[in-house]
Amino acid sequence: MVAFVLGNGISRQQVALERLQELGPVYGCNGLYRDHTPTVLVATDQPISRVIQESGYSQKHKFYTRRPLPNLGALEVPKQYFGYSSGPIAAGIAALDGHFKIYMIGFDMGPNHHGKFNNVYAGTDNYKPVGSTPTYTGNWARQIVRIAGDFPHTRFVRVYGDTTATVPELEKVRNLERLDMAAFLERINKAKDL
């Protein structure tokens, strides 16, 4: 079965999230819960993790964090990915859940069109302001390489939009391919070749 893992890079705004949910489980991160209820949500930064848990979200939906607050329903991040960032953890959990093909959408790992912080939620609570410098993503690259290595028989597909950076370390991973956003949208619209 395929799964879809959503980062919060602005390239994912081209994708209808409800359509993904029709085609397979959706794993997402942090502020995604404000707009969409994924199958699994991950948040590692303590401030947003606390907000999510205190909102009651984690009592109704599957939510992973590093240090769950007592009695609020959150699950602890799997030990092997405990120190990882939210996006890679979401991909790791999707692989642990046994999905043979994992599409990573919104894993832009570079600046927006203006060379600034690339995030759908920029300027909102618990996020950097609009116009901030881009977030360092070298740790994401290393973590994704390790996860792909942990699951050599799983196919990882990084979907490239117009703000998705080319990351040399990821280009060398045998079981991680790149797919243009237009081709991905065609696949999900036709529910073919997934």
Textual characterization of the structure:
The mean pLDDT is 96. This protein has an eight-stranded parallel beta sheet, with helices on both faces. It has one domain. Helix 4 packs parallel to helix 5 (138-150). It is built from seven helices and eight strands; from the N terminus they run E-H-E-E-H-H-E-E-H-E-H-E-H-E-H. By secondary structure, it is of the alpha/beta class. It is globular, with a radius of gyration of 16 Å. Helix 1 links the parallel strand 1 (2-6) and strand 2.
Task: Walk me through the topology.
Elements: E1 2-6, H1 17-23, E2 26-29, E3 40-42, H2 46-54, H3 57-60, E4 62-65, E5 75-76, H4 86-96, E6 101-105, H5 138-150, E7 155-160, H6 168-171, E8 176-180, H7 181-190
Brief descriptors of the model:
194 residues; globular; eight-stranded parallel sheet; 7 helices; 8 strands; alpha/beta
Structural class: alpha/beta
Question: Taking Cα atoms only, what radius of gyration do you get, to the nearest Å?
Answer: 16 Å
Instruction: Please provide the count of β strands.
Output: 8
Main β sheet profile: 8 strands, parallel
Report the uncertain regions.
none
Shape: globular
How helical, in percent, are the residues? 25-40%
SSE pattern: EHEEHHEEHEHEHEH
Average pLDDT reading? 96
Give, in spatial order, the strands making up the sheet with the most strands.
Answer: 5-4-3-2-1-6-7-8
